[in-house]
Amino acid sequence: MRFYTVSPLIARVTSQQVDVGGYRLPKGTWLWMAPGALSRDAASFPDPGAFRPERFDPACEEQRRRHPCAHIPFGVGPRACVGQRFALQEVKLAMVHLYRRFVFRRSPRMDTPPELEFGIVLSFRRGVRLVAVERQRRRSSSTDA
Ligand code: HEM
Asked: How far is CA 1 from each of CA 29, 118, 129, 143, rounded to the nearest angstrom?
């Protein structure tokens, strides 16, 4: 979610004149925010290219120091994604079910990094190829008997 932020851009329109970061924005101004760029900002994520999921551990100093809006893949505020909890639960369930049966390896047919396509949502132009290797099934005690 940090490297491949699904919604690279989110937008707002000012409903009244407002001052933001030293700029005066008249009513009706479009504002574009870039969660994908935020998530790679070294000020919030030192060594931003490193895959270190433990950065998000609530006990981790980096996590505690980070601004709450430094990572906003589901947007922020009253118009944030209503499906956030559902989506996270769905991803976890899907991964648990898949990883119980398979391990995934990078496909030899994927010899270059995946090509990204930026739109309202981020996608992979030619998909991501993986090899699914079926795990060896453990024999249950009843099978042994
Ligand atoms: C990984 C999955 C998902 C991601 C990364 C995601 C991300 C987002 C983002 C960035 C926004 C805009 C938030 C903003 O402007 O501040 C949004 C809005 C929204 N999302 Fe999601 N979303 C996901 C899954 C879902 C699912 C599963 C549902 C429905 C079951 C859903 C329903 C919505 C709706 C209805 C809005 C519009 C909310 C509003 O304008 O008040 N999303 N989502």
From this structure: 29, 15, 18, 41
